[in-house]
Amino acid sequence: MAGIEDSPAWAGEESVAVLVTGGAGFIGSHLVNRLLKEGRRVVVLDNFNDFYDPALKRRNVDEIHSAYPHGDLDVVEGDLCDAEMLKELFRTHRIDLVHHLAAMAGVRASIEKPILYFDVNVQGTMNLLEAAVDAGRPPVVFASSSSVYGGSPHVPFSEDDPVDRPISPYAASKKAAELVCHTYHHLYRIDITCLRFFTVYGPRQRPEMAIHRFTRRMTEGRPVPMFGDGGTSRDYTFIDDVIDGVMAAAGNCSGYRIYNLGNSHPVALRDLIDRLASILGVEPEIDRQPQPPGDVERTWADISRAEKELGYKPRIALDEGLRRFVEWFKSRQ
Predict the structure, then answer these.
(1) What is the pLDDT of residue 291?
(2) Vertex 47: Cα angle to 148 and 53 (nearest 5)
(3) Are 130 and 2 in contact (CB under 8 A)?
(4) Is 68 a catalytic residue?
(5) pLDDT by residue (tens digit) across 112-138?
(6) Mean pLDDT of the region 153-177
(7) Nearest 5°: phi and psi at 19?
(8) 90-to-120, 133, 265 alpha-carbon distances in Å
């Protein structure tokens, strides 16, 4: 492992790159678009796993190439669990900034495969940080989750709240990864910013997520599952706003810091369904189901720290974001 006094061998050179792990996925592909738009050289690392149809992620990459045919983009197919591959990637591509978005996602799936979630989300993050330290300690922006707040009764959720009672393996793995990040910052003075995302939605959203799933079912005339009485609420945050926050965090990555990136306007599940149905022009058929284990009652971001320190200010209200998503969804049919 590199010593903490070492500097990157390529310091001062222009041909350095931004690494985006999970760059073929929903949030990652939007981030890659933004980076290429700004003229950055980008390396995507993605394993194209089958958590959802890998063809959708490959389509995301194809759309990036189409939008930026002259963009400086390398796509590496590889896994975070392959520590030697990660070290070789850093050596080959001379990374000067890391956006670490790759993870096993989803609360409910994590209950079925908790060991896999910890292998990827915790050990994989440690592998990445080991490679980053060896390569000269480029700053890291890590994608965490609002799930770390668990069933906290205190709202809105603040970065200073205790988050030691997660209620799903996914949430526990994200909190554990934050702790790993802090440890590496402390030991090796690597600058790391952790971003707690709050229910991100928009074009390219994963197909199992609520807004995408509900849109598909309503369009097909199938019942929409509503868990409990529909009173659970989420702080839905449009993808463009989140990418603004991610870019601001990268530009201010110093020390170790945690930020909430949300919309700070939670919406109840039943209200979400009604708004989406109105935009689609349908009368939804509701399939009432019991509340799944691991799901939290609500999420609500206190974004005052991100506003103050990053200039973060979400602009897209839910109705406008839903209209943009529906327009994208129909364009893909």
Answers:
(1) 82
(2) 85
(3) no
(4) no
(5) 999 999 999 999 999 999 999 999 999
(6) 95
(7) -95, 130
(8) 19, 10, 39
Is the CB of residue 322 less than 8 Å from the CB of residue 284? no
Say which of 117, 170, 184, 256 is annotated catalytic: 170
> Which residues neighbour 289 within 8 Å (Cβ) at sequence distance 6 or greater?
225, 226, 227
User: Helix 26-37 crosses helix 54-67 at what angle (to 10 degrees)?
Assistant: 10
Q: At residue 24, does pLDDT exceed 50?
A: yes
Place of tokens 């045919």: 69
pLDDT tens digits for 32-77?
Answer: 999 999 999 999 999 999 999 999 999 999 999 999 999 999 999 9
DSSP 8-class letter at 284: P
- Each domain of the chain, given as residue ranges in start order, spans 17-198+239-262+298-315
DSSP conformation letters of 208-226: TSHHHHHHHHHHHTPPEEE
Q: Tokens at residue 270, please?
A: 């039943």
Give yes or no for a contact between 145 and 234, defined as CB atoms under 8 angstroms apart. Answer: no
Strand bridging mode 267-268 / 233-234: antiparallel
Q: Which two tokens stand for residue 151?
A: 């069933």
**Does an H or E element contain 320, and which?**
helix 318-331
Fold of 17-198+239-262+298-315: Rossmann fold (3.40.50)
- Which amino acid belongs to residue 270? R
| Nearest residue to 159 via CA among 117, 214, 198, 110 | 198
Q: Are 11 and 40 in contact (CB under 8 A)?
A: no
